[in-house]
Specification:
The chain has helices spanning 41-55, 63-73, 80-101, 105-109, 128-140, 188-206, 222-231, 252-258, 276-280, 297-309, 324-336, 351-356, 382-385, and strands spanning 3-10, 18-24, 29-33, 117-125, 145-150, 183-186, 211-215, 239-241, 263-265, 286-287, 313-314, 343-344, 362-364, 367-369, 397-400, 405-406. By secondary structure, the protein is an alpha/beta fold. Strands 4, 5, 7, 8, 9, 10, 11, 12, 13 and 14 form a ten-stranded mixed β-sheet that branches. Strands 1-2-3 form a three-stranded antiparallel β-sheet. A three-stranded mixed β-sheet has the order 6-15-16, with no helix packed on it. The longest helix is centred in the N-terminal third of the chain and has 22 residues, at 80-101.
């Protein structure tokens, strides 16, 4: 069996999805997702100019060797552009193998550990009453877990994932008005004074059973993060996400020494080397790594196994920048992983997106249920894809009140 060709598509309904299709001489094809949010054309070019010419003629069943060929064969290893491109290839090869076997991927991993995987929604509000309405909305839809973000009184601009006005949308933060980013202003002192009490009010309003998550989005220094994690202990958060940047893995020790609040980190990680010490030293409780950004199913499965040895659960990234293809790959891992925790799920569930990526996967009652279709269980309509093209966009940047550039 040989790979005969591959094609990259950039574009989609409301997002610049980077979709890879690998064809074989037996008529079986596989799909992968290389979407690197706001840098989408870069992994697409890497695939087209460097990787696909090497793929032609390879046996798609040798996915391990192909992954090593691209990762070890590159003298300059890693990074989000390369790993997103490798991730798309790896997903597509697993998709082909599942179709050859006539099995959904979770069966190739070892079978089901659960019937459905819990997902969480994003509740957001310009102020606390607005947030409460958003949480109520998701609870009424059957969600058992909700991430909560709300506006901070006196903050000069809306903070991460928070709408500027009551009733607005705060989930989808890419601005497709152009490459140059908008600026948010961040005030750590205001956040530290306000947010612990706001989270306590959410807990008081909705009771002990709701799983409440909160994302700091890298905005605090390690000492501040330790103070915040201790302050919110009475809330009983399901997790506190990205309380501080994790480039220095040892910085997380300070939080662990001062608080028992569960910590989730990893959505910007690109390999096991970004998180192995966090996991081995049990400095986190959930690993947020994504199948796309970390190089595909093959390396992420290794991370899941390492995490399971150290009492760390999965909590894969699932922002709208992930297409239904990568979300399906993570769904199969979630179905198998004995140390599964929870899954973020924010793929745009529009008729246009469903038409471009048809599947029988479904969300019901705050749970994700994978289909039993062979492979990833997601198809790709190339005719639908021709309706879309790349649209430049950007995330905001963050500055402090004095103009200092801060962590997004």
């Amino acid at each position: 069996m040989k790979i005969t060709g591959a094609k990259v598509y950039v574009g989609g309904p409301g997002k610049n999805y980077v979709t890879l299709k690998i064809m074989t001489d037996q008529g079986i094809y596989g799909l992968g997702d290389a979407t690197l949010n706001n840098r989408e054309t870069l992994p697409a070019a890497y695939l087209q100019d460097y990787l696909i010419p090497n793929l032609i003629g390879m046996d798609p069943r040798t996915s391990e060797d192909i992954w090593q060929f691209f990762y070890r064969g590159a003298y300059f290893r890693g990074g989000p552009i390369a790993m997103a491109a490798f991730g798309a290839i790896d997903m597509a090869l697993w998709d082909i193998k599942g179709k050859l076997a006539g099995m959904p991927l979770y069966q190739l991993f070892g079978g089901k550990s659960r019937d459905g995987a819990m997902v969480y929604a994003h509740a957001t509000g310009a102020d606390l009453p607005d947030l409460m309405e958003s949480v109520t909305h998701y609870i009424e839809q059957g969600y058992q877990a909700v991430r909560v973000q709300c506006g901070i009184p006196g903050m000069p601009t809306a903070s991460y994932a928070v709408p500027a006005a009551k009733g607005g949308k705060g989930d989808f933060i890419t601005d497709f008005g152009g490459i140059r980013p908008k600026t948010e202003i961040w005030d750590t002192d205001k956040y530290m004074r306000y947010m612990p009490n706001a989270l306590a009010e959410v807990r008081q309003c909705f009771g002990p059973d709701l799983k409440i998550l909160h994302d700091v989005h890298h905005r605090l220094l390690p000492r501040e993060a330790a103070e915040f994690a201790k302050a919110v202990e009475p809330v009983g958060l399901y997790w506190l996400e990205d309380p501080t940047p994790a480039e220095n893995q040892d910085a997380l020790r300070l939080i662990r020494h001062h608080s028992t609040t569960p910590i989730a980190i990893g959505e910007v990680f690109n390999s096991i080397w970004d998180c192995n010490k966090l996991i081995e030293n049990e400095l986190i409780d959930f690993i947020r790594i994504a199948v796309t950004y970390a190089g595909g199913i093959t390396p992420v499965k290794r991370i899941v196994d390492l995490a399971g040895m150290h009492h760390v659960k999965t909590g894969f990234h699932g922002a709208p920048s992930h297409s239904p293809i990568s979300m399906a790959a993570q769904a199969h891992l979630n179905t198998w992983a004995p140390n599964f925790g929870i899954q973020e799920y924010l793929v745009l569930g529009t008729p246009e997106c469903d038409a471009m990526f048809p599947s029988e996967h479904r969300i019901q009652g705050g749970m994700f249920f994978v289909s039993d279709a062979p492979g990833l269980g997601v198809d790709f309509d190339e005719h639908e894809a021709t309706k879309y093209e790349y649209v430049p966009g950007s995330h905001p940047i963050v500055r402090l009140k004095d103009g200092t550039l801060w962590n997004y």
